[in-house]
Amino acid sequence: MQSINILIVGVGGQGTLLTSRVLGNLASDLGYDVKVSEVHGMAQRGGSVVTHVRFGNKVYSPLIEVGKADILLSFEKMEALRWVHYLKERGMVITNDQSINPMPVITGAAEYPDDILDGLKKSTAEVININALDIAKEIGNIRVTNSVLLGVLAKYTDIDYKNWEKALSHTVPPRTVEINLKAFDKGYNARG
Description:
Layout: E1 4-11, H1 16-29, E2 33-40, E3 48-56, E4 69-74, H2 77-83, E5 87-96, H3 103-106, H4 116-123, E6 126-130, H5 132-139, H6 145-155, H7 161-171, H8 177-188
Parallel strand pairs: 1-4, 4-5, 5-6
Antiparallel strand pairs: 1-3, 2-3
């Protein structure tokens, strides 16, 4: 298997790091060589968080090169646009239809763009936009938005559903397994 490169982007507190651990555990459970590299700045203050996840028969570097990501999994729309240049030519963007205003927008120094999806579609033909936050709210806990997005991602891979469930169950805190599995299933079956 050639290496699979997934770039996870979002804002601090959205669960991107837990998502990368689920992916790392999934790949490891399947016997792949896996590398995960977390890059986060002001994560606790709502800053950008980026995680590189690479797995395959042999992976040498933990970092994805610009233009080499197979999938960009975004927890916030503007972060997707900010990092889309990492996507390969026929890569896929999966983005949460959520907008979180960065500090320049909050202070009035900038405006939040309203044409983000158009910008993403100019970069790649495959853009999946899903309101994972609303799905998580319907389930009763916005903290499982990341599991909703994992479910969406799982639908577009060749990895068996049961393997995803196992990795998720072994990664999230034990008391949250049931609600995370429910969120995962809702994402897997959602239309985006």
